[in-house]
Specification:
The structure is a single chain. This protein has 561 residues and is an alpha/beta fold. Helices cover 38% and strands 23% of the residues. The strands form nine sheets. It has a seven-stranded mixed beta sheet with strand order 9-8-7-4-3-10-22. It is globular. 35% of the residues are buried. The chain binds flavin-adenine dinucleotide. The site of flavin-adenine dinucleotide (FAD) has 33 residues, from helix 2, strand 4, helix 3, strand 7 and helix 16. The site of flavin-adenine dinucleotide has 33 residues, from helix 2, strand 4, helix 3, strand 7 and helix 16.
């Protein structure tokens, strides 16, 4: 039989073995062989991003048939829920990052520190640029082929093209952002403490403006307020009286995605704390010295001097994703659309997870209509209760948004929705049911852009990849309503475990499954335990717990290092 040279020993000897020898199998222990003992060409999976969804995907991926390559400008995973605590030194930035190289070594994956600047889906290629291109003289840009692409690049802060925001405001998205904010806050206090300043100048420098009353803006305001009360009073007693925090929100209320009880508590607490909360106030421009808002009540534009602005009004697609959406006919959409298996619509072998994508809502409604038409075999416009229940089960299984909508409206299932439309008839009128669903359509929200969704999507996709071969032979998904047979996998289903809104002063609001709301000090302890347990390694867990202890004992560090 054929002889192959495999490797040379350091002593100069040459190891030779035959094509079919057991030794060959032994030496190829890490390569996957087909049933004839031939190595299988591994599919190349390229993952873009090392954030919540990318990290979770890589962590759970466990299939030796894939050659996995990660491209991300960030060589670490960032635990974003604790980012607001970095802005005032409660927690150190290093404590909430986990180097990606450790996971790569453990899993045998490859990592490249670069940013993907273009996706060429028709040639299955990505174009990348190294983070520090200037020092690499021509090697800074390169192409990479893929068989399967997993897009997990997250999103960028959305400025709504408000003039001056990019130039003058701070964002809170990355570890560097949090450190920049921390330095800038300290810097404001040092500047305001300089001699020869007027009172007006001190007031301007120490006016902190937070734009956006969502969870991040609220948490940052609360952290800043804690810093002023707990530490600034001791460290900068002479200028403490000049400090002011203003929180601007364009809508009627802050935390409007939370239960009304939480919103009301947060608004009252902020008023008690002296945080100047302005709702119905939309920022129309920021200059180096002033921030201008249009007040909904009066219709007037008002300008105020400020020392520092932090912008936290939501997220938008990254340029590389916008360009990709144009290529694949999704240019009109706001966010990249996937189906419920997280496959990018209109594009083969590309998946998208986390903040970068959303399951296409309009198609969901078209699909629901198609599911009905298929179930209505006799074309009668009605379904009997048994068929109807089957259809409803299918819909809830496929579409997490529908399920979330029902839960939010305290409906057990879609069948309850129907009662108002159809009464107690034994035959279900399809048209009436669709009318009832159109209510879901108009109110149904996309899945929230949270770490919870992103990490569950990463885990789901990894599980699909892990059982790709098995499920090809034995599909486990629901019946196809377009075409015959079953889908290979169950669709992605989101499980909501609740949300927290830290409000400062060791108080947190918690909204937990089952419509359970808890606000106060006890929820703060729940918050500490949940986030400590969610940190991705024992190293970060120990670091964060020791940061919290350090803060309790010694207070926050106010050096601008
Ligand atoms: P990210 O985690 O943002 O990861 C994106 C990755 O892609 C990064 O590694 C990035 O470097 C990389 N990348 C970017 N561009 C490219 C490119 N061109 N090519 C390759 N790689 C690229 N959610 C919660 O559930 N609970 C919370 O308490 C919470 N608190 C938050 C607090 C703050 C301050 C912030 C900013 C967010 C918070 N979130 C929270 C939201 C949560 O962080 C996001 O929903 C989550 O990070 C989304 O995960 P992702 O994988 O889509 O993106």
């Amino acid at each position: 039989s054929k002889l192959l040279v495999v490797s040379t020993f350091s002593g100069g000897g040459v190891l030779v073995y035959s094509d079919s020898s057991p030794l060959r199998r032994l030496l190829h222990a890490d390569a996957t062989l087909d049933e004839n003992g031939q190595p299988i060409r591994k599919k190349k999976v390229v993952v873009l991003g090392s954030g919540w969804s990318g990290y979770s995907f890589l962590n759970y991926l466990n299939n030796p048939n894939y050659d996995v390559q990660i491209v991300s400008p960030r060589n670490f995973f960032l635990f974003t829920p604790l980012l607001p605590s970095v802005t005032n030194g409660t927690v150190e930035a290093r404590s909430i990052v986990e180097p990606i190289r450790g996971l790569m070594r453990k899993k045998g994956f490859e990592y490249t520190e670069a940013e993907c600047v273009k996706i060429d889906a028709s040639n299955k290629k990505i174009h990348c640029r190294s983070k520090d291109g200037s020092s690499l003289k021509g090697t800074a840009e390169f192409d990479m082929d893929y068989d399967i692409l997993v897009i997990a690049v997250g999103a960028k802060p959305n400025t709504f093209n408000t003039p001056g925001v990019e130039e003058h405001a701070y964002f809170l998205k990355e570890a560097e952002d949090a450190l920049n904010i921390r330095h800038s806050v300290i810097d404001c206090f040092e500047r305001a403490s300089l001699p020869n300043l007027t009172e007006e100048e001190r007031k301007k420098i120490l006016h902190f403006v937070v734009v956006g009353g969502g969870p991040t803006g609220v948490e940052f305001s609360a952290e800043l307020h804690d810093f002023l009360v707990d530490d600034v009073a001791k460290i900068y007693p002479k200028v403490q009286e000049f400090t002011r925090i203003t929180l601007l929100e364009a809508g009627d209320h802050i935390l409007n995605m939370f239960d009304k009880r939480i919103t009301a508590f947060a608004e009252e607490k902020f008023q008690r704390d002296g945080i100047d909360l302005k709702t119905g106030s939309m920022v129309v421009g920021v200059t180096a010295d002033e921030i201008s808002t249009k007040e909904r009540e009066t219709g007037k534009v008002v300008s105020e001097p400020y020392g520092m602005v932090v912008w936290s009004t939501g997220i938008g697609s990254r340029p590389v994703i916008r360009d990709f959406m144009q290529q694949i006919g999704q240019g009109q959409r706001r966010v990249l659309a996937t189906d419920e298996w997280l496959r990018v619509e209109g594009c083969d072998s590309v998946y998208a997870l986390g903040d970068t994508a959303t399951i296409n809502q309009r198609r969901v409604m078209e699909d629901i209509a198609a599911i009905f038409s298929k179930a209505d075999k006799g074309n009668t416009g009605t379904l009997n209760k048994k068929d109807f229940n089957g259809v409803v089960k299918d819909i809830c299984q496929r579409y997490p948004q529908v399920e979330l909508y029902l839960k939010k409206n305290k409906l057990k299932n879609i069948a309850q929705l129907l009662k108002s439309a159809n009464g107690e008839d034994t035959q279900v009128n399809i048209e009436k049911f669709k009318q009832a669903l159109s209510e879901v359509d108009s109110q149904m929200k996309n899945l929230p852009a949270t770490a919870q969704v992103a990490s569950q999507q990463g885990k789901y996709l990894a599980k699909c990849f892990n059982q790709m071969e098995k499920c090809e032979k034995k599909p486990e998904g629901p019946l196809r309503f377009r075409g015959e047979g079953r889908h290979r996998f169950q669709p992605f289903r989101y499980k909501h475990f609740g949300s927290f809104a830290p409000l400062g002063g060791e108080q947190t609001a918690a909204e937990l499954p089952g419509d359970w709301v808890s606000i106060g000090h006890s929820s703060q302890w729940l918050w500490y335990s949940v986030y400590a347990s969610k940190l991705v390694s024992w190293r970060t867990r120990m670091l964060v717990i020791s940061d919290w202890t350090r803060r309790f004992v010694f207070g926050r560090d106010s050096s601008s290092i």
